Amino acid sequence: MKWLRNLLDQIAPHFEKDGKLEKFGPVFEATDTIFFSTDERTESGPHIRDSIDIKRVMILVVIALIPCYIFGAINVGYQKSLTFGYQATWMENLSTGAIAIIPIIVVTFMSGAFWELLFGIVRKHPISEGFLVTCALIPLTLPPSIPLWQVAVATSFGIVIGKEIFGGVGMNIFNPALMARAFLYFTYPVDISGDKVWALAPDGYSGPTALSIAAGQKNADAVGLLNDASSDLVFDYSWVNMFFGWIPGSIGETNKIIIILGATFLILVGITSWRVMAGSVLGLFAMGYLMNLFSPYSSNAMLSIPPHYHLVMGSFLFGTVFMATEPVTGAHTDTGRWIFGFLVGVLTVIIRSINPAYPEGIMLAILLMNAFAPLIDYFIVQSNIKKRMVRYAQ
Questions:
Q1: How far is residue 179 from each of residues 47, 93, 157, 347, measured CA to CA in Å?
Q2: Which of 240, 125, 129, 107 is nearest to 180 (CA)?
């Protein structure tokens, strides 16, 4: 690679200040740092306290997401073969799913790269690697039937409104990928929520997600509804099958084993916070048990969902592992991360149970806690200052 290093060094002056290609400097810098590590120091958050630069951090997150894409493609093909009653190999299912998923990925990255390059050139700041993770996350939060034009619009909204208007990476308040998902939910809800979004075939056949089965149902047991749905439909909504992911759902959310392995990888390489994940699961179980106590006194079937079912239904684990732990929009103190995660889990169950119009919950829970994360850190820091003042006074 020495020849490439020499080539980049030779043309670098053209992209530096007063060079004839100065305005394209951010594009050159982005290309350079893709191949080689930079020796420049970060001027804005997030700050990494070791030799790993932000680009390498983002790449590690993308690597952790790749298995979710592979299984998501296999599951799309499997659901289609299951629907029409024919046997297909894993490779056949993978190719079927890839045909549905790859266009979504391409449109997402093209839209994200366009805005990232545009803002980098106009503002004359380095191209942010953050859009790689944002664009890798967005398709995984969508059903495979989503119209591609909606993907482009949502990605643009997530990048521009969710990040760039705040000043770019490290300055945004809300998770950009979740902003894209929220935009689609509130503007085009028919194509992204409910029981008709998982189109498995050209003729429009679709199947419900597990959460949509119990949402809005009265005087019924949620587990019983899932069991009945498993008998009436071709889908299996047992706890074990939901854990292994062979159910309709967003592309990356269904297989909990792969998500847990991704969490383990990110924790081991020191990229993410296990405190947020643990706190979120604890909050989910605590509020789930509390809702179960109120279930006999309410006709709302969602209150009867056991906590361990909440764990494997919908995007809870995916959101907890890959979005709640995002370093910019979450809490930054260790105690704050416990509180942040716990409240994410609590709010997820509350939104799922109380609001039948939106049975998922995790997206709004994280976005709400993104808004309160600075306040949580503020009180934690102030509490530590007071404790130290008392200790020093003694």
A1: 23, 31, 7, 17
A2: 107
> Could you read off the pLDDT of 316-354 as tens digits, one per residue?
999 999 999 988 899 999 999 999 999 999 999 999 988
- CA 7 to the chain's CA centroid: 38
> Largest Cα–Cα distance in the chain?
77
CA distances for 104 relative to 144, 156, 247, angstroms: 8, 14, 20
Q: Give tens-digit pLDDT for 150-171.
A: 999 999 999 999 888 888 777 8
pTM of the predicted protein model = 0.85
